[in-house]
Fold:
Amino acid sequence: MKSDNEDFNERYLGHLNKGNIEPSINDFLKWLITINYTNDQDNFLLFKANTLIGLCKEIRASDSLKGENARNMARGLFILAEDLNDTINEWRTCLEEKNRNTVKKEIHKKTDGLIAGLERFESIFNWPDFKIWFQRTYQSKKKIPEPELRDEDQSKINAEALTRDIFICHASEDKPGVIRPLTQALDKEGISYWLDEAEITWGDSITKKVNEGLSMSRFTIVVLSQIFLSKNWPQRELNAVLNMEASSGEVKILPLVVGDGETRQKILKRFPLLNDKVFLSWEGKSEPIINALKQRLLNITKDQIVKSSKMSNITFPQNEYWDGVKGAVVFWAEKEEEKITCAVSSQALEDHFNASPSNHLPVFKTNRSIVEDMAKNLIQKGRFEADGSIIVKTRDFF
Structure:
């Protein structure tokens, strides 16, 4: 016989998988508490804690909270979440099992306190943006069939789906004095960022996660300090972004110096490729950094608008197509004298148009206008493959 918790969990997840649930925060917290990973309690504790931290950050950054009481409570939840986040980081750095167990109890205690605060918040204010956060965070994780992909292709797709404005490259010792106030300001402005402590959990491959983070981020803020120069890992991140910048010809690195002129000279001596960069200095306030970053992001938006307008006059020669590539039907787009190779995956034809392996080409011809619209949309968004081509995939139809 099922327990009440198991029954609730089954019903909740059933609705979740069908995409037809509109939960309240209290319902969500009840589900989060009742699900259980009996074989991996530590990992589940971090999952639960990080989920609550993410929820509190969303509440803190929301513009939909009305009244001073609501905003004050949101700030209080955010402070609790930051405290919990610091405790998680302390747990990760503990080497002795005895100390780890002590800190883990603190994580349990602070997680329970945060749940109680969220329950009280919901009962008073009924935060309207919760459904948006829930759908983006959980319903977007439902799997959609994809064509067979190499690992690097899958990483690229994941990066496209989770683009961040910035990656924060730093030494962990700079978290209290620089990273904390900087990320708080980023949250307030709604600027998305990739930060190791929020993205990497127990058992993850650090190299894989960092590679994904660098790939999905428009820019990398490199926090250059005296301690940075003695840390191997953040220097590896910097070298990777230097390589990306050199390969693409696009600005990727935004240097932020912590320290005096002597520190800067040491940095330039160690990394001569940064010599022609305009640096910003950390003076204890995040406002100048945020203002400069907003301007940089605004310039990207303007470039995208210009690119979109230039790509609006796209045509597709109707007599040009080719079924000679395994797993795809190839066709071409033309913009003035530019010719863009396009393709629609066989998997997309089968999933969206009920094609069979033997009739991909006839199905493509019948539905060509729909496929061309999808390709045009991808061109306008700049979703080009590494070789400059466009591939319409199953996920593009959803």
